C-alpha cells in the first residue's frame, strides 16, 4: 500500500509541478527590470524595455474569452501559424513559420 501511495505522489509531482510552476512564473517579473533583461510570465517570453515590456508568446494561443494578454507587438503560435497581435483580435496577422 505504501508503494502505491509513493508512486501516486511522485506522479502528481511529475505532472502537476509544471502547471504550478507556470502559474507562479506570472508573478516573477523582476521589480527592477533592466532594459534587455528577459523574463517568463507563464505564457510569454518578455524583454524589459523603458516603456512597456515586449512579450512574445511561445506556445500559448490567444484566449478568445480574454483578449487582454495579447497586445500589439506581441506574437503567439496557434498550433499551426505564427500570429502577430492586433488591437482587434479578428485582425491578427498569421503566417507559416519559416524553418
From TrEMBL:
Which keywords has UniProt assigned to this entry? Answer: Protease inhibitor, Secreted, Serine protease inhibitor, Signal
Q: Keyword Secreted: yes or no?
A: yes
Top-level taxon? Eukaryota
What GO MF terms are annotated?
Answer: serine-type endopeptidase inhibitor activity
Q: Which residues form the signal peptide?
A: 1-23
- SUPFAM superfamilies in the record, alphabetically? PMP inhibitors
Cellular component terms (Gene Ontology): extracellular region
| InterPro entries noted in UniProt | Pacifastin_dom_sf (IPR036201)
User: Where is it localised?
Assistant: Secreted
Q: Kindly indicate whether the keyword Secreted belongs to this entry.
A: yes
Chief site of localization: secreted
Family of the protein in this entry: Belongs to the protease inhibitor I19 family.
User: What is the official name of this protein in its record?
Assistant: CSON013654 protein
Organism, by scientific name, is Culicoides sonorensis
Tell me what gene encodes this.
Answer: CSON013654
Amino acid at each position: 500500500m505504501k508503494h502505491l501511495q509513493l508512486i501516486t505522489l511522485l506522479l502528481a509531482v511529475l505532472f502537476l509541478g509544471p502547471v504550478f510552476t507556470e502559474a507562479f512564473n506570472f508573478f516573477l517579473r523582476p521589480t527592477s527590470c533592466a532594459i534587455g533583461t528577459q523574463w517568463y510570465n507563464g505564457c510569454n517570453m518578455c524583454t524589459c524595455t523603458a516603456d512597456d515590456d515586449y512579450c512574445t508568446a511561445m506556445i500559448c494561443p490567444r484566449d478568445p474569452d480574454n483578449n487582454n494578454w495579447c497586445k500589439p507587438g506581441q506574437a503567439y503560435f496557434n498550433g499551426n501559424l505564427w500570429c502577430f497581435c492586433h488591437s482587434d483580435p479578428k485582425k491578427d496577422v498569421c503566417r507559416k513559420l519559416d524553418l
